[in-house]
Amino acid sequence: MNLQLRHYQYDAVKRIRESYIQGFRAPLLVLPTGSGKTVIFSYITERTAAKNNNVWILTHRKELLRQTSDHLDLLGLAHGLVAAGHAMSGDHVQVASVATLARRLDLIHCDPALIIIDEAHHCNAATWRKIIEAYPNSRLLGVTATPLRMDGSGLGIGSGGYFDKMIEGPSIRDLIDQGYLAPPIVYAPPTDVDLSGIKIQAGDYLQKEIAHRMDKPKITGSAIEHYQRICPGVPAIAFCATVAHAEHVAEQFNSAGIAAASLDASLSDAVRKYRISALAHGQLQVLTSCDIISEGTDIPVVTTAIMLRPTHSTGLFLQQSGRVLRPHPDKTHAIILDHVGNCMRHGLVDDIRSWSLSGYKKKNKKNLDEENIKIRKCRKCFAIFSAQTPNCPQCGTKYGSAVTGMGNGRELRQVDGTLIKISKADIDAIKMRRRLEVGTAQTLEELVQIGHKRGYHPDWALRLWNGRHTNRQHHFVNEA
């Protein structure tokens, strides 16, 4: 099969080739979920293997190994599988489970010319490092949609990673505008979700504690009600905190007459493959999971993401949101039902983000202390948006002019778990309110209460308080 690349995919291949010519050993390709990263590295694999060079493609989940193998089959490219239940082959191309390959390194007597690392944001884990460091002369190619670790640190050599050059493709917004991804509509709670008391470990909330907080009949019932009201019958993935949480959510969807099943690593390959296929072909309406389908899994027909797991990780948020952005003939848009306020922490999935090998670069924060924040609710579609926006961004209803006073705007309130349609203007307004709340806190105790409510690390309030006083001391010294 002659693989036809899109224009930005050809550009990525060209830039990767140029980086090797320039002397870089390990470029990192950054492209959004659904942009065709597997197509790109399959194309590169085919051309590298045609020169009798060995290529290894590293994956960390059975679904990703199978999808990669399927792509190579479409190209007619012979390859072996390094995975449990598969014997070693002599093919130039090997698609490898990281865990299996790490155990079999002593059995391999040929060096790869190129090691392709799928979902490369995981490559600092011990098993990945064992493989990469065993072949210091092999070229590397990392591919990911989210080039940062759980704690926000980068993947570059200077951050303890392996990559020496970043190659960025078009953004999610660019691909939506070009018709390669589906535009998202986001429904989210209008105020912060209370995560007080939940511990943070390794950069994210403890999953067991999140599950204890989220695995409640009332919360799951709200998720079912919103699904039935906003997008009844469409294929959906519910992202949960633990395996048990995913099982309970699936049970409650089934009890409500909505065909659902959970997916986890303990299931056989056949069962996992069947349930994913059943969602794609309409036998299931909802698939629930903890981590299995957060990354890589390609089910284009899935339209809705149901978020029931709050996360501090921007990468995890983008990976999960991206599952529903893939285009499909039956899909005009994607829907994100964010029951846990993830978009309030990380912004909308199609926000422009600046990536770096050193980590995630957040936008510079302006001084918002005197910002007068107001919003309005559309009288026609009930969308929430900035009162300074003259037209409803969702349905186009005109309001004549932007307002400078309260006017028809209403303050956002929590309404017993009700999700509202959220636009970028809404996110910006809510973030302004959050910053104002912090900025106007006068005591350490007030900051502690804010951090407790938002589920921040226990040290957050003290660090901020100490930083304020340090800045004031510097100010006094300069004035003197």
Structure at a glance:
By secondary structure, the protein is of the alpha/beta class. It has 15 helices and 18 strands. A hairpin with a 2-residue loop joins strand 9 and strand 10.
Describe the structure.
It is a single chain. With 480 residues, the protein is an alpha/beta fold. It has three domains: 7-170, 3-Layer(aba) Sandwich (Rossmann fold), CATH 3.40.50; 178-346, P-loop containing nucleotide triphosphate hydrolases (Rossmann fold, 3-Layer(aba) Sandwich), CATH 3.40.50; 441-480, no CATH class. 36% of the residues lie in helices and 15% in strands. It has 15 helices and 18 strands. The chain has helices spanning 7-21, 37-49, 62-75, 98-104, 126-133, 172-177, 207-214, 217-230, 243-255, 269-280, 314-322, 342-346, 424-439, 444-454, 460-479; strands at 27-30, 55-59, 80-82, 93-97, 114-118, 139-144, 165-168, 184-188, 200-201, 204-205, 236-239, 260-263, 286-289, 304-307, 334-338, 375-377, 384-386, 420-422. The strands form four sheets. Strands 3-4-2-5-6-1-7 form a seven-stranded parallel beta sheet. It has a seven-stranded mixed beta sheet with strand order 12-13-11-14-15-8-18, with helices on both faces. Residues 362-375, 401-416 and 472-480 have low confidence and may be disordered.
